[in-house]
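Fold this sequence, please.
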Amino acid sequence: MADDRDDRILIRSWWGTNHYVFNFRNPVACVIFAGLALLACGLLYASNHPSTPQWEERELRSAVKKATAELSEQAQFGPGLPRYGEVLQSRIAEHGPHSESPHSSDQETGVVVSLASPPPEHDYFSDSVEEADYTITADGTEAALCLTVTAHSSKYGYSSVRFKTRSGRCPVT
């Protein structure tokens, strides 16, 4: 004969405390318990994995304009240096719509900077001109920008870095 405790979803604990626990003899209690466990796991995952920020075309243009003005003024980096694309990506992300987010990192900004021309070589011993084309895209927008970077380098660093921005993707050479 079945105990009336089999029908209830919550029952008193057998351990002598006044706490109520799920009655796992009841299938509804098992479903509720499993649902709560899945909900808790989903909330933990969502809190530790924020979504990638979505950009609008005007935000991308504005961030590129601000980042290139800053890089041109400083003239510390040029396209012939290793990882220049990462420098561009980081600077553009700093001026983006979600730059204040505590969870944002360079990989999660939604900005993609890809080299569309052969990589220029930096001459450490003489004066030279370095030029490279980068295609800049962002999550949430179909817009793409072609950024041409021209830098005049010398033995002592860069004397000037100039940027030219066009709409659309850069032609791959």
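The longest strand covers residues 128-138. The mean pLDDT is 83.
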